[in-house]
Design brief:
single chain, about 260 residues, alpha/beta, Rossmann fold, 4-stranded parallel sheet, 11 helices, globular
Length: about 260
């Protein structure tokens, strides 16, 4: 085992650098897909209910585990009936519901939606501390870092992350962070690109989400013959829908021929 991996494994068994633990909530409800995944990885035994999206394997990395947990919509009355000690939520949705829960004294923890791996480490530690699961958080971070450290070195080839309808996420996006973690250079373009713009200045590689099982005009661009000569790698939508330790799998997929 090399020195880097040994250091990462040591980190997994030590919580000395992590924030101090908060009293652990016994009944936790998650109303957001991103927080669903943190809850199932950090404290599944205390999950009372998750969002409906947690069971969707196209979007959720914890779909098999989530299938065993009840789901709840972001309705204040339904959530209060579950008697949660803590509610996990996103930064934008269900604001009216969250306001009602707050008036009833229910603690709420919102995700910060990290966009790179340093921020993922910080967010994982924040959630682990809030859930009283610091050791589990450190293990997740160590596993992520081992996965990233194991990615082979690649030439700095230019990669274009192509989303449905020709949208290309720009600087500061999670997709660009994944491209860099995979050893490539993000294409210096962003916004919505047409077929002609891509074909006129083709990247070395196109990165795109695995195509859905049903046809869609939104993803038709990838099937055009003008782009057939450009190599491509397909990453799982679930690995990038929300940023977390699981996002290392997107980088590993991109780096693997």
């Amino acid at each position: 085992m090399n020195a880097v991996l040994a250091a990462l494994l040591l980190l997994a068994t030590s919580a000395s650098a992590a924030p101090p633990a908060m009293p652990a909530a016994a009944r936790i409800v998650s109303l957001n897909l991103c927080t669903d995944q943190y809850l199932m990885l950090l404290a599944p035994g205390r999950a009372v209910a998750l969002s409906p999206l947690a069971r969707d394997p196209a979007l959720s990395t914890v779909a098999p585990q989530a299938a065993r947990i009840a789901w709840v919509r972001p309705d204040a009355e339904a959530v209060l009936a579950l008697r949660p000690d803590l509610v996990l939520a996103g930064p934008f949705g269900a604001q009216t519901t969250l306001a009602v829960l707050a008036r009833h004294g229910v603690p709420i923890l919102r995700t910060a939606l990290p966009q790179d791996f340093p921020a993922i480490r910080a967010e994982t530690r924040r959630f682990a501390a809030a859930l009283g699961a610091i050791g589990e958080g450190e293990r997740l971070i160590a596993q992520m870092d081992i996965r990233l450290a194991g990615i082979p070195v690649h030439p700095r080839l230019e990669v274009l992350a192509l989303e449905p309808r020709g949208y290309v996420p720009g600087e500061g996006s999670l997709e660009q962070s994944v491209i860099r973690a995979a050893g490539f250079t993000p294409a210096p373009r962003s916004g919505r690109l047409g077929l002609e713009a891509i074909a006129a200045h083709p990247p070395a590689l196109i990165a795109a989400a695995v195509a859905p099982d049903y046809p869609s005009l939104a993803t038709d661009l990838l099937r055009h013959p003008a782009l057939a000569a450009i190599a491509r790698r397909m990453w799982r939508t679930a690995d990038l829908t929300c940023a977390g330790p699981w996002t290392a799998e997107a980088a590993a997929t991109l780096a693997t021929p």
